[in-house]
Amino acid sequence: MILKELKFEHYRNLENLTLAFDAPIILFMGPNAQGKTNLLESIYFLAMAKSHRTSKDKELIRWNADYARLACHVEKKHGPLSLEIQLTPRGKKAKINSLEQRKLSDYIGAMNVVMFAPEDLGIVKGNPQIRRRFLDMEIGQVSPAYLYHVSQYQKIIQQRNQALREIQHQKQFRDLLDIYNQQLAAVSVKILQKRYRFIEKIQEWAREIHAQITQGTEKLDLSYECSLPFSPFMSHEQAQEAIYQHLTTIRDREIARGISLAGPHRDDINFFINGTSVQQYGSQGQQRTTALSLKLAEIELIHQEVGEYPLLLLDDVLSELDENRQSHLLNNIKDRVQTFVTTTGVEGLYHQTLKQASLYRVRQGIVTL
């Protein structure tokens, strides 16, 4: 998968601009706050129809502009592909090969990306919400229906939380809660089945990559921490019934709190090195190696699932990695993955591959070769 052309109109501080790419590695270099991350964000947005930095699309529209438009041309193994997203204060429209997509879940997955930014180094040590977002974004790329189920789930949770609060004052809402429990159990099973399968697959790749980086001295394991009585070995019907019964059991506690206490929105991932929790006892180096292993595993998993490598977006992350981790990252992607890198300078970038990259300079939203 190769990104050949990228176009902007009124996107953040990037005015009307068209960039063409013909190299496997592209460096965007310049001082901070000039628009380098906006460039990577635009590629991510074209792939995922959402930003990795904000949930408010209106922030992406240039100040005093009525709309923003992003477009790109991608070369895939089955032929060329054009993508376009237009943003207005009223919403967004997404097109594939000039055809507007009725649902965003029909759009996502046409172009695959893996983003690696400094905040991703905290995916191990950070809060569970970061890891759940990691799951949702990565599974959604290879299984767009998953994002639809997550969207369904979020709506049910909002309605259910409202019902839990209403029950505190009006008991007749208890019957409504039972309906929400049935709906929640049904969609939770679909989400959990995908998450467990993803954890199993990404662990295979991450464990192998982690062993390479640590020269076989460390074994990485992942486990999914589920707040519901679910097992991937259950049938769909068994899992749905077990979850429904559990929600019934904890109903009084949830009513007292006025909030849903169990479900995929409360789950987490645990990481272990040689059987010891990386979150609790891992060194900073072990946590960074775990995060790097996960990102490299994402690349391999997407390749396995869709048949070609994703684009890799490295947002000022190389300067956060020592020479050993830089080398493992760049050796893993060499000649296979088109990579876009932001940096304030080439100092501290050790790998020979970077010396052969196409260099673009970015200043005040203007990009020059």
Task: Note the main attributes of this structure.
single chain, 369 residues, alpha/beta, Rossmann fold, 6-stranded antiparallel beta sheet, 6-stranded mixed beta sheet, 10 helices, 15 strands, 22% strand
Describe the structure.
The chain is an alpha/beta fold. The chain has a domain at 1-112 and 308-369: Rossmann fold, CATH 3.40.50.300. 42% of the residues lie in helices and 22% in strands. The protein contains ten helices and 15 strands. The strands form three sheets. It has a six-stranded antiparallel beta sheet with strand order 2-1-4-5-6-7, covered by helices on one side. Strands 8-12-13-3-14-15 form a six-stranded mixed beta sheet, sandwiched between helices. Helix 3 (128-142) crosses helix 4, helix 4 packs across helix 5 (174-213) and helix 5 crosses helix 6 (236-249). It is globular and about 65 Å long. The mean pLDDT is 90.
Q: What gyration radius follows from the Cα positions, in whole Å?
A: 22 Å
Q: Return the CATH topology of the domain at 1-112 and 308-369.
A: Rossmann fold
Helix and strand element order? EEEHEEEEHEHHHEHHEEHHEHEEE
Q: Which CATH first-tier class of the domain at 1-112 and 308-369 would you pick? A: Alpha Beta
* DSSP helical segment count: 10
The shape, in one word, is globular
The largest sheet, given as strand count, sense and whether it forms a barrel, is: 6 strands, antiparallel
For CATH, the homologous superfamily of the domain at 1-112 and 308-369 is named as P-loop containing nucleotide triphosphate hydrolases
Assigned CATH architecture of the domain at 1-112 and 308-369 = 3-Layer(aba) Sandwich
The level of helicity is 40-55%
Q: Structural class, from helix and strand content?
A: alpha/beta
Unreliable residue stretches: none
Provide the β-strand percentage band: 15-25%
Give the averaged pLDDT, no decimals: 90
Find the count of extended strands (DSSP E, 2+ residues): 15
